[in-house]
Design goal:
elongated; about 270 residues; two-stranded antiparallel ribbon
Length: about 270
């Protein structure tokens, strides 16, 4: 399934990259009147962009992958699977908190990760549970936003890459005109038009990258709030008093009794 998903994203990226070049393709005529028109092919337009079209193509593939993967990961069914919520509710109704913890650990998801932390802290009291929830929600939110933030990087970098190609192309064009003279000014306009392909391509990638960034960021915030709402409902009327001191979970506890307590009890130094 993952290979199929990656293959589809690659096809979409190739389509997007082809669209970038085809938007720039237009009939061009020779300098002499009456000369037949020549429509540049896709390969010719890509070649005109220069070496910067290679990193721009990479950015287009990465942008489509980040948007597609982020859309799936921030969806409600992925963040808060209904079947998992129903299963945890059944465990809570039965008072089987150990079973609920084992289920959450065996079926990882953002909701189950948060729920598993909350259940493992039930024996520590309400305050500890709330602090654990806040920490785990922040962790899940950070993981989502870390990947989504790369779209913002794409939106900033691709126009800069295109602009770099434009500048280097113009330097070459002016160097050629400086050596051969300015007998035909149309050559300068043609050269500038060609190097602008790189800038247009970079902007064409940056626009959907920024759009995807803000859309996915809002989806992730909405999904995190959905997890909060579900956990608030699950923890209502939780019998913390009856669960006080319970060790729910499989994590090893390292906090033991201070070693000097036993020594003080057996030492005769306290006697007068």
């Amino acid at each position: 399934m993952k290979f199929k998903y990656a293959y589809l994203l690659t096809l979409l990226a190739a389509s997007l990259f082809c669209a970038v070049a085809s938007l720039q393709a237009a009939p061009e005529t020779a300098g002499k009147p009456g000369a037949p028109s020549h429509t540049k092919t896709l390969g010719e337009k890509i070649a005109e962009g220069g070496w910067v079209m290679v990193p721009i193509a990479f950015c287009s593939v990465a942008t489509l992958y980040l948007i597609g993967d982020g859309w799936i990961k921030t969806g409600a069914k992925k963040m808060v699977p209904p079947d998992q919520v129903s299963a945890v509710k059944d465990y809570f109704r039965q008072g089987d908190y150990v079973g609920a913890y084992d289920y959450c650990r065996a079926n990882p998801s953002p909701f189950n990760n948060v729920c598993g932390v909350a259940v493992s802290l039930l024996g520590e009291g309400k305050e500890a549970v709330e602090e654990g929830l806040v920490g785990e929600l922040a962790k899940e939110n950070s993981q989502l936003n870390t990947q989504i933030s790369y779209l913002s990087v794409m939106g900033v970098c691709t126009p800069m890459i295109g602009l770099l190609g434009t500048v280097t192309g113009m330097i070459k064009a002016f160097a050629t005109l400086g050596s051969s003279g300015i007998g035909d000014p149309s050559k300068l306009s043609e050269a500038i038009g060609e190097v602008l392909v790189a800038t247009a391509s970079g902007l064409f990638i940056a626009i959907p990258a920024f759009f995807g960034y803000y859309v996915l960021r809002n989806r992730s915030i909405k999904s995190i709030h959905a997890i909060q709402d579900k956990m608030a409902g699950l923890l209502r009327k939780m019998p913390y008093d009856q669960l006080a001191g319970a060790n729910i979970g499989t994590e090893e506890l390292y906090a033991g009794t201070p070693n000097w307590i036993g020594q003080e009890a057996s030492s005769p130094t306290g006697q007068q």
